[in-house]
Amino acid sequence: MRAFTHESRCKIKNATLLLPTGIHKNKSIVFESEKIIEISDDQLVDNNMPTLDAEGLFVAPGCIDTHIHGGGGHDFTEATPEAFRIAASAHARYGTTALFPTLAAAPLSVFKEAIHVCETIMQDEPQGARILGLHLEGNYLNKIMCGGQNPAYLTLPDVEEYKDLVRNTSCIKRWSAAPELPGALAFGRFMSEQGILVSLAHTVADYPLVAQAWEAGYTHATHFYNAMTGVHKQGEYKKEGTIESVYLIKDMTVELISDGVHVPPAILKLVYTIKGADKIMLITDAMAPSACTNPVSHDSRVIIEDGVCKLADRSALAGSVATSDRLIRTMVKQAGIPLSDAVRMASETPARIMGIYDRKGSLEVGKDADIIIFDDNIEIHTTIVEGRIVYSKK
């Protein structure tokens, strides 16, 4: 293989391409600088360029993780350039080409410092996954459903606080909150008016409240099935939970931690059956120990067991150690989802939901050359971010 350089025109040949139109064998994809410029049959592409032989492996759009707390031993609440860069590079090894660093509940000062770091990192040439903006998962969450969140930092929505944050940066792209909290509906209306994805999370909202939240701009459900209520009894009567309420709102989108532990495979299949691939995005909700050879928790509140993070007293799950390849693999191998749809939920759907489908989320001419190559077991062989090889198994 002649060396790939960012400036040169490069080709991947002998590829099984996952395109918006389906899975196509014996294809080539050509990119120059950071953009895809041609998709053709193998024999139709000029061979006088640096070429990577995919050897028949799957070539797909890179994964876009919109809910990820860290990786490679670092958490984004460290609010340092090193933490952001290391986590982004660590997850690129497993197929993530773009991500939205997620901040769990923390002091306001941490949010402000992370915003400053994120604004700087977003201007850098990526050495791993491209960082596209922040997701705040706090501090406006219901303490009853705090899960792995630190309840000490959970507060009611503060108008002055959240307006000040948003008006002083453009890097906040998602914000998760519990719609039942006083002031949360006004929060949702304001955030959605700013073009920020508002998502219900860590909540006990019932159907009337979820319906109100939808009207107030809550168009998405954070880590669906986790830290929210399902159907339950109130006295001798049945009561719908947040989960059933989200199902009833047809156009509300959801995200799934498809590691096979946070949501069992049968439930993953149920969500897919009801919502469909165009309403589901796969997320890792990954913690600092993720994307490490030997994951170890350095947080005394958290242990790693059964392939997930748990609170040390085992009272709740506390995030995952999953990577993007595992999300797809679980959907295909355990939940029986077609590969093309599993990949869509990790790439195209998050790109559409986050409003970046014009440049990311699928292999199409004119879009960023965010490309992954993987085998039948969905093990990543190569990750390319905006035309640069950032990981190669060889």
Structure description:
The protein starts with 8 loop residues before the first strand and ends with a strand. It is α/β, with parallel strands linked by helices and 394 residues long. The chain folds into two domains: 9-60 and 367-392, Urease, subunit C, domain 1; 62-353, Metal-dependent hydrolases (TIM Barrel, Alpha-Beta Barrel). It contains ten helices and 24 strands. Helix 5 (207-215) crosses helix 6 (242-248) and helix 8 (324-334) runs antiparallel to helix 9. The strands form five sheets. Strands 6, 9, 10, 11, 12, 13, 14, 17 and 18 form a nine-stranded parallel beta sheet that branches. Strands 1, 2, 3, 4, 5, 22, 23 and 24 form an eight-stranded mixed beta sheet that branches. It has a three-stranded antiparallel beta sheet with strand order 19-20-21, with no helix packed on it. The model has no long low-confidence stretch (mean pLDDT 95). Helices cover 25% and strands 29% of the residues. The chain has helices at residues 81-92, 108-121, 159-167, 184-193, 207-215, 242-248, 265-275, 324-334, 339-346, 348-353; strands spanning 9-19, 22-32, 35-41, 51-53, 58-61, 63-68, 70-71, 74-75, 96-104, 130-131, 134-137, 172-177, 197-200, 218-221, 232-234, 237-239, 253-256, 280-282, 302-305, 308-311, 317-320, 371-374, 380-385, 388-392.
